[in-house]
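Researcher: We're teaching a course module on how sequence relates to structure. For the next exercise, students receive a sequence and then see the predicted structure as tokens, so they can try to spot secondary structure elements on their own. Here is the exercise chain.
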Amino acid sequence: MKLVRFMILLPVFSLVTLLSAETPVRLPFNGDFEVGTAGYETVRVVRPDSNPKQEYLPLQSDSTVKYTGNASLRLENPYAEQTELHSSEFILKANRIYTVSGYIKSDRTDALPLTAGLEHYSFKHQNINVRKELSVSSDWQPFSFELKTKDFDAFFHLIFTIKSGNAGTVWLDDLKVAEKQTDPKSQVELGIYVDRKLYIGSERNAAITLKLHNPSGETIKRNLNLLAVDDYFNKSYPVSSFSASLEPGESKEFPLSWTIPRFGAYRLELDNKTDVRFFPAYLLCMDKTEQLKYRNDAFMPGINSGLSMVGPNRVQHGGWELSGQSPDEFIRALSLAGVRMIRGHDDGSFYWGDLEPEPGKFEASRLEQSLAVYDKYHLAYIPVLVAVCSERLGGWERRAMLDWQKQLCSTAKDWMNRGKYFHPPQQNWRNYVEFLATRLKDRVPAWEIINEPQFIMSAAEYMNYLASASEILRKVKADTYIVGICSTSDFGADIGKFANEVMEKGGLKYLDAVSFHPYASRELTSANPADLQISSFRKNVNNFDKKPIWEGELYYLFDGPTMQEWYRSGIFEPHHLARRYIIDCGEGCAQSHPVASGQLWKRMLVPNYEGGKCNEANPSSSLAAFSTMSDFLSSAVPVYKKKSNGIIIYGFRHRNGKLFAALWKYASTGGMKIDLTDFDGKDIFGNPLPKQIEVLNEAPLYFLQGRYSENEFMERLKHLEIIYENPLEMIPVIRLSEENHQLKALITLINNGNQDVEAFIGLKGACRNQKPFNCRIGAQKTETFLLDVSRGEGTDSSVSLYVNGKMKTLTATTVEMKIAAAGETFSLSTADKHIAGSGRFSVEDKKLNLELDIDDQTSSAPRADLEAWQQDGIEFFIDPEAYNLNNGNSGSYSPEIFRFFVLPRLPEGQQFKIWKNTFDMTPEDFTCKVTSNEKGYKVILSMDLKKLKLKKNAIGIEIKISDAEGTQAPKTTLFFSGGNLEPYKNRNGFGIFKF
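Model: And here is the predicted structure for the students to work with:
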């Protein structure tokens, strides 16, 4: 993935909700800066050339220089760094004209150029902004500009930008954003400050300062309650209650102290019983982790990115882009959280254009400066060589090649034919690699060769770069550790295809480990579950050679918003982070570094700005989860796994020799509890678990071996009892089909308990029971039932499950599917009738026989090198467990599902292909005959069923027919069932052959 410039995690609240009452209030918060710097922060590009000590100068409240009131905001920029000042966000109403105004001055005798702006950005509405270019002198001067909003309410914030190369100090005062002909009400405002944002281990005493200001013309009295709200569990802790009295225009400070009760992140805010406007403070307390030296041969949790360099295509003078903290502070926090290694993929340190600015003249000063910070805090750095670059640059990317370099390169289209890529000549590539190998010989523990090469070159081209890089790296240092292939399932790509092509060409002889990016397998409930994907990928590599596998990148840890909204997809919770590393380690990945450094910070200032802006140096609760996870998993070895009924347990041997386990609920099953009386354990942030019955949820719990022997601990794990309020669960998908003019519903029920149950089922919504339905389900059994139903409204149904007098209600999605009986003819057609057909199947002597007549008069060009879905072709998806869906994610494949293909336009002998499967089904288990006719073609197919060992006289099936013309990609697709248009990753809509 080429995307990451994450600087955020959304908070569970938004300050702006306090600022959007019907009575207009003065915007933005603290626009007169009478409560200090609260509600403002900077983003700087820290320049190592002009700022060799890498200072990050904070915002200051200045009582000596002011236009009005008691203070102004001072923004210092002595190092001429690209600097942005951001306000907190606020809502502007639809279809109105707002005027931005304020006063500004600088310490320059000449004019200092500065841009003032008001901006909104979201994926739904894109960018709405206005900019005003200012020339700022040494005298206070007013400024103003207008913006007309669109036909919706939206979040906006102010941005002031000093461009790189302009040194000087700027003061701002009396900022306002107001509608014309309105008189916004000034309210009492409160700034909340903490002495620091990160507390480690036993450091629990937080010093807090409250700055309160009364802008009104009358004396005010307020009773205030300050709370600390756990940012993950949302539990509130009282900090202080006090009374405040302020004269007109008066400001007061209140020093407080608070003892942090538990590890976790906290927002300091007022309760909701006040009209005082405030901006919350934020702090994190996390356990101390053991400082360990990174090793390639032990599991060492890492991350991507680190210190991100920006350069020529964004700012004149490059440097590290940071918000609210110096490079030293940023890396120190990651080190304290147990980050062991940084994968240098998208930090910009290895661009060819930076390393060789002139032909034959290499330099690496910026890289050296980054490495010095990593070395100081004992973080290993693994470079990803990136001398190949794209013609298309996203806003987050820098110019990876200079013009003279591009002129030497060959070019190629990317895999989706969207843009051009530049491939350097071998000699230039070798020079680039040799320079870095020599310069960093003993400073990096491993190298990775090109990020996600399958998107930018063929396997043969990659082999050329891999072979020469390996030769040079090992010539410079014989025991150099090399990682490569870096296959990915991002953008719907096949994670195994490119890897197999490289391995078939002998690529593993150049590598010590194989990396992969499992974007299509993020969770245990993904269509291709995370654990099964890793297991499959590892086995695939082992078929060639037993090399370690590294999970290299996965910026999106949960199956959520579409990738058209990548910003929201990247905002994960602490449990997403902890679970992914536990899965990677538990499934045998040698290393794991799925997330990016910027994702471990929390954005409070502009949480609804859907792009990369301020993070204000707030270490998120995910950083605390990383700390706990890393201390458990560093050098841990997996020893046990149990996955059943929506619960997963991984057992490990800790580096201290003792056993521990991680457990969580991964399925949607509710009402599950566990008895912790006999266990010593910790929660996701390292807090001790209470010895009581606890509700299981999606956050991992860690169990310690404690006082038990290894055998006793393992026995307790194996026989861990889950307590269910109602043991009955239903896969939340109802499959609908028509049989003999009667609508049928297939539902799959799970009895998680240890006893048989009598159950009563009620359906309403998209489908309804025609009569009461009751059933009996055995202990620990999963059963599928066929009900007579009638159609209702909508696409979802409400399902009521009654067991032992207790009712559970859930929502299930309805999916249209098809059931065909042996001997009957079924029809096939697209909605526009562009292609159509019919089919008929039978079963004789344990052989399934199928005839398909396909009307397709536009023949594709015969191409043996293309897949079936890239030309005229038929894909068959076979599911031996026709009736049972999986718990957790009903669409996920079981290992038994397999695929085979018919390519009707190819010569006889090349028309049938089957993929590897767990049944060892081979072409010898099939007969296939294709005949062409004036309407299209006919397929007669026979499949031996003996190896499948079917439990019922039915087989799940989807038939996907692709129609292409000439050399063009298929434009039309025809399905047997049509319940799901992506059967290659979701089995919910498979049809059924019943015999």
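Model: If you want an answer key for the exercise: The chain has twelve helices and 62 strands. The chain has a mean pLDDT of 90.
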